[in-house]
Amino acid sequence: MNVRRRLISGSAALVATALGLCTLSGCSGSAAADGGSGGKLDVVASFYPLQYLAEQIGGTHVHVTSLTRPGQEPHDLEISVRQIVQLESADAVVYLKNLQPAVDDAVAQSSVKAKVDAASLTTLEKHGNEVGGHAASHDSSTGEETGSADPHIWLDPVRYAQVASGVGKALEKADPKHAADYEKNTAALLKKLSALDTRYKTGLAHTRTKVFITTHAAFGYLAERYGLTEEAINGLDPESEPSANRVKDLERMAKADGVSTVFYETLVSDRTAKTIAGDAKLKTDVLDPIEGITDKSKGSDYLQVMDANLKALRTALGAK
Q1: Which of 11, 110, 220, 232 fits as disulfide partner to 129, beta carbons 3.0 to 4.6 Å?
Q2: Consecutive sets of 10 residues in the chain, 320 residues long: mean pLDDT of each?
Q3: Measured between alpha carbons, how far is 176 from 34 in angstroms, rounded to an integer?
Q4: Residue 203 and residue 228 in contact, taking contact as beta carbons nearer than 8 Å
Q5: In Å, how far from its chain's centre is CA 149?
């Protein structure tokens, strides 16, 4: 707890320093107004899923940048002075409160007019290591973040669509001149997300098992949406280590529920997943939480990677 307090206070000090520099250099105000973004609405997104929404909805009228680099684990983001200055000169910021404390600090202290918190545009739930069909009792011996608010709303196409609607309305308000285009682009995106939801419902309706194992608890909303149960090796923090009891429980559960595969992800080490899979004689595969797109991603954008995730789940769960 003391370490976290020091990190947050350090982040706040960095924000204050950067804002001081920004004041001296006169960088506040609309980047779009001074041509800094080629006359486009300058939007800063905290990480890829929100960048994707801003780009899809904003189209040719926006210039979008992300605070989280491709391949960078967003939970670990340490914001730089340059990024805080960039944020201060933006017209709008789209972020997910409580996912990245450094971003929360910077946004709170910035003078950006349009601050869009994705968490306020849908509903968040408290999830632990086990989420879904038979998640009545979580293993308290794991030491994980059981009961923490789960930020991974973008992995549920229905919740993600709710966020998209809110982002669309925010862009319309920030740039009324192009409101009709933002509305049209939002409607087109919602149609694509509805089709994605239908593919998941159909594709996961009839499976041999409903239980899947992942490295960290990113897929709780997805599991609940489609009648599955996610068993996570770690909690909501992808870098945490599981207890010996948790590992034993997972191995027993895998045998009892006919689990064939342990899923790992692209931005975090696969060492623990492969160790558990080896001990339990299970296969491994990638289930991507889509926190960023890299050359390891099975697709070039959100929709393509979600379809790759569906294919991986269907194989692992024995879809009929």
Answers
A1: 232
A2: 42 52 47 56 98 98 96 89 94 96 95 96 86 44 53 97 98 98 98 98 97 90 96 72 80 88 84 84 93 93 98 96
A3: 18
A4: no
A5: 13
All residues at 6 or more sequence positions from 187 whose CB lies less than 8 Å from its CB, including other chains: none
Q: What is the pLDDT of residue 64?
A: 98
Which burial class, exposed, middle or buried, applies to 304 when counting CB atoms under 10 A from its CB (0-12, 13-18, 19+)?
middle
Residue with tokens 């009929």: 320
The closest alpha carbon to 85, from 119, 36, 35, belongs to 36
Question: What is the Cα–Cα distance from 250 to 272, expressed in whole angstroms?
Answer: 12
Tokens of 233: 């090796």
> What is the 3-state composition of the chain as percent helix, strand, coil, each rounded to the nearest 5?
50, 15, 35
Q: Nearest to residue 30, comparing CAs of 113, 116, 115, 117?
A: 113
Q: What is the pTM of this model?
A: 0.84
